[in-house]
Design goal:
The chain has 6 helices and 7 strands; from the N terminus they run βαβααββαβαβαβ. The protein is an alpha/beta fold. It has 2 domains: 53 residues, no CATH class; 52 residues, no CATH class. The strands form 3 sheets. A 3-stranded antiparallel beta sheet has the order 2-4-3. Strands 1-5 form a two-stranded parallel ribbon. Strands 6-7 form a two-stranded parallel ribbon. It is globular, with a radius of gyration of 15 Å. The two termini are 25 Å apart. 2% of the residues are buried. The model has no long low-confidence stretch (mean pLDDT 75).
Amino acid sequence: MSVCAVDNSAEVLNVAKEAVYTSQLCDLVGESIFERMTEGEFEEMFENDGRAARVRSRIREGTSWHLGDAGDPGLMCVIGRQDLVVASNFLHMEPAEAKKLLAEYGSHREAGRASLCSGC
């Protein structure tokens, strides 16, 4: 599986590239990234040494990183069609803007593939 990660914050993107999460990083995003994960999900995705959790290498491999605005219409030309689109952080958008963006993403995923969205 290949993963394309996009964020408009270089700081957030760099944290994600490092793939190491500590309690201090939770302050950057305002909550624990593990808050809604089950223990099984955590074990599947992370290696934990008690001080930090690192994304497992099989998940990190094949990820491409892009600094950009998800609302940029040219972004899809850069990242291409996707098998899975996962979108979050839509609370800062006006409802009409979020609806338009989600429709745009939906039109760029491979036929028969999934889109997931979270408002947080």
